[in-house]
Amino acid sequence: MSTLREKILTTATNLFQTQGINSTGVDTIVAVAGTTKMTLYKHFHSKEELILEVLKQGHQDFQSWLSDKLTSTKKPSDKLQKLFVFIEEWVTSPDFIGMGFIKASAEFPNEASPVHQLSSEQSRQFRQYISNLASDAGIKQADILALQLSLLFEGAVQAEQMQRGSGAMKYAKKAAKILIDGALTP
Amino acid sequence: MDIFDSEWLVSMLTKSSATPQGRMLSLFDVLNDWLKAPKISALDAQTQPNIKADQALVSFITTQAKACGAANPAMLAEHIVLIARSAAQQVANHPESNDLIHAKEVANALILAQTQRNWLSAINTPPAKAFIYGIAASTFLIVISVSIWLPELIKETRPAIAQTEAATVTANAMNKNITASDAAKMYTKYEQMRNGTCQFPEALQIPDKDKAIYLENVVGGKLPNNLDDLAVATTYLEKVRCNFTPMLMANSK
User: Fold this and answer.
1) Which of A124, A177, B38, B140 is 20 to 30 A from B162 (CA-CA)?
2) Strands B197-199 and B241-243
3) Which residues of A touch B103 (CB under 8 A)?
4) Which pLDDT score, from 0 to 100, does residue A49 have?
5) Based on C-alpha coordinates, what's the Rg of chain A?
6) Alpha-carbon distance B190 to B179, whole Å?
7) Which residue of B has its CA nearest to A159?
């Protein structure tokens, strides 16, 4: 990836999360990135394409980070339990600026929008990831638990995006433990 | 129209249940019924999740969260409304989905996560060190006393033993002490209640003579001292209605 493309992506990621996707114009992105509109459109044909790339990159980074964190945990049920421990660490870290697909889904509620479609797909992929962990842990209704945990997670991230230090993830982690323990009980 | 910003929703929740937990959880039932009613197609698809627009609803849920002793009522309310909105959007787009039903269980777990400590501490308060030392000292004194008095007791005649046995039976009949089995049953009930969201009978509706037993042995989770109190406590324990979902059963500490 060219350095300039990477810089535009990083700048757009930060601006979308801090100022909102719809509120951030291409002019602002090029000004902050120190480039020109022509260069931006050379790498991304439209603002929508830029948004989609930001979402893809962010989701890939998040999934890789989470998978790396869980690598050292061997027991499947422990992986499930630790999921929210790591997510809480991430959400409460100073670097946290939000979750791309959650923000995009909120800003693009129309189902016909490609941005909405991609954010819904990423939400589904995350739910599937949890469902696989739950299945590995021997939970029969893995899909239901995955749906519940993803609702819990997305709600807590939204609360945290609205108010930093809200503590939402702390209680989401406790609630997740209650849900996981319940699902693990035969 | 955005249902989350309607007075109708708050008025429906207000009359939905006698308990604050019930009123919070009814949000999911009311939304599910509303979305699945004939001729009501969807939420406003263009409406973005905006907690500020749901202020009346968040305020109502915050009041309920305070009433049930949540550690952070405002945050619990916001989280519940965000989850409800997300699940309702899904049901609006895909009417066959059960997201609101599963979201209700998530909200229940969140309520437990914020209130569980109060209930746990009532039952599982760890004994203080002084209490443990007291028990140890008492045990030591009993052992010493028995070793001194045992030879004297052995000298007693059989009629005396018979008299002692008769006296014990009389004393037991008078004290009506509860047995280990009774205690185990009560602890099982307390444990079950701890693992559910329970709705207790209103204390005002309970006769004055039973009120102290009800508050101490049913609400407070303390074992009754005798069989009479046990009978009263058991009567009221059976009136406690608990919501147990499979996921909230054992090991939910």
Assistant:
1) B140
2) antiparallel
3) 148, 151
4) 97
5) 18
6) 17
7) B79
